[in-house]
Amino acid sequence: MTDSPSAYWRGNDARAAASNSAARLWSMLMMARILLAVAIVATHTTADRLAENMPGWTLWASIAYLMATLATRLLTPHRIRSQPLGWHWLHSCGVDLLYFGALLLVQLAGINYAPLLVLPVLTAAVLGSRALALGTAALAALLVIGAAYATEQTTPWLHASVLFQAGVTGAGLLALAWLINHLVQRTVREQKSADASRSQAQLQTLVNNLVIEAMSDGVLIVDSGLVVRSANPAARELLGSDQEITASQFSLSGRPSWTQLADIAKDTLAGEPLTRKIVDVQWQGSTASRMLVRTERTPPIDAQTPGLCVMFLQDLRAIEAQMRAEKLASMGRMSAAVAHELRNPLAAISQANALLDEDLEPEAQERMRAIVAHNARRLERIVDDILDVSRVQVNPIESQTLILDHEVEDFCAEWSQQNRVGLRLALTLQAGDTRIQFVRDHLRRLLVNLLDNAARYASDRQGAIQVVSSTSAYRPTMLLVWSDGAPMEAAVQRHLFEPFFSSESRSSGLGLFICRQLCEQHEATISYDRTTRRHRNRVATGNEFEVRFRRAQATPATLAAAGFATMFE
Fold first, then answer.
1. Beta bridge partners of 482
2. How far apart are CA 561 and CA 559, in angstroms?
């Protein structure tokens, strides 16, 4: 069963587009009717002046036909224009057949009006169903044959070839109606197929975009000009391209820190796809961010549309965190169990040592009791550290929105008073009102651990310990804890954040490990580097721990303020 144009126009898919297309076709055919009516009026006016035997009603009939065509064009509402031909067939094709048939019957001044019947047949074939088109063509054929028969009866000397010619004309009109309607139906089917394919493509594009946006790995689509056409949030975070301020499309050659990625994109577009490569993206004034890069090249569509480079970026922090989680899972459970078992005998030892203190008098015995108490407290701290690690891994807490500078200032003041560091500690807080996602108690524990570690190795000079906060539109919010201690050995640096590793025999080796666990729980990062800093007129090289925080989601007010501030940078 063949599909008709009406089935398409009544369909749900692309209804608005089909309606507008039908209305445009209708308007074009009605404009052709108007032009034809004007030509007929002009012809009859000229013939009326040149021929004496022209009936007077013909000119008035032509003017009436012109007025009818104008009224149909101007007064038909849009909803009728966008529908297939139905009862309003009478206003267009019916009026044409009636008027053109009358002209055929009278044969004015020897004019052949049969070609005029092509217009109503064409209109019915384009705007109507196949049955309506063939019916209109049949009526037109009957009019041609009837007019020829009537003319032969009134003029006996005309040969029978006139009737044969009329029959051929009628057959041609039928063939024309069938062919045009068939082409229209085929075009409609192809249009429906194209609309369905476009809908499927749009749906697939939406699904792909949702999947890419939600991916934890970064995805970049780079063209031959090294312009990033699309980047998901994970890729922007790895590149430091703030989505709230940076344009949706940007160039990899725009920053020196992206030079490695730009070179990789060039090689891929030149036909050398990259399987795997580790890339360091160096932020200004901070340590490098490491990522694993893999690329693919899309085939070119044509000579004018070259292929694209698709880059997959994987943060090595996630890979390393997964490996550590698998490695430490069993050890963490065992450590927690051992810590709980050690707590009971430790409590008994501490209680017995306190009872002995009441009866001990000699100085040597007092020293022995102090040694027992000191080591019991040390063991208790180790147990607490192990349990803290277990709590961080097992009991994650929902992050809070904190103003970094306010919290850091309060924690540093409290720590400085407890440890009496005085002028050894220098604060440089430049993050302003920037908000981060972190739990307040966890931030305190993180900062205190870093400050305790810095105080253990720092000198007694002013500014030997420095705490610096900073933020910008193109970099994450950072907190730096620096001290002017001696450089660490390479072996120590490699295992710096691993559990139970310490360069001191009296340390549990869990302080920095807990810091890293706290950072990972809140989607932050911590790293170490050997850097140089200035305090007053003194320049010194020391150990620096850098923490990068996840910013809190910006509000419209903060976005407007950030956009206004960038105008003056």
1. 466, 544
2. 5
Phi, psi of 421 (to 5 degrees): -85, -20
DSSP state of 502: -
What confidence category does residue 545 fall into, taking pLDDT thresholds of 50, 70 and 90? very high
Higher pLDDT, 117 or 59: 117
Which of the residue ranges 57-61, 184-188, 318-322, 464-468 would you say has the lowest mean pLDDT? 318-322
CB 238 within 8 A of CB 311: no
Report the Cα 317 to chain-centroid distance in Å: 24
List 546's β-bridge partners, or say none. Answer: 480, 527
126 vs 184: CA distance, rounded Å: 6
- Domains belonging to the chain, first-starting first, are 5-199 (no CATH), 215-315 (3.30.450.20), 320-394 (1.10.287), 400-564 (3.30.565.10)
Look at the alpha carbons of 235, 236, 238, 244 in this order and tell me if their dihedral is positive or negative.
Answer: negative
CA distances from 501 to 99, 152, 368, 491, 497 (A): 104, 118, 29, 11, 8
Q: Are the C-beta atoms of residues 127 and 86 closer than 8 Å to each other?
A: no
Query: In the predicted model, is pLDDT for residue 362 greater than 80?
Result: no
Contacts with 537 (C-beta within 8 Å, 6 or more apart), sequence order: none
For helices 118-127 and 161-214, angle between their N-to-C axes, nearest 10 degrees: 30
What pLDDT does residue 559 have? 44
Which residue's entry shows tokens 């009224």?
71
Tokens describing residue 448 = 């205190």
B/e letters for 412-425, b = 16+ CB within 10 Å, e = fewer, are beebbeeeebeebb
Q: Which tokens belong to 528?
A: 């170490």
Is 230 strand, coil or helix? strand
**Could you give the C-alpha distances from 453 to 142, 231, 383, 465, 487, in angstroms and in order?**
106, 39, 19, 10, 14
pLDDT digits (tens, 9 = 90+) for 471-518: 876 678 899 999 998 888 877 777 787 766 565 545 556 678 878 888
Angle between helices 15-50 and 56-75 (to 10 degrees): 160
Q: How far is CA 243 from the centre of its chain?
A: 11
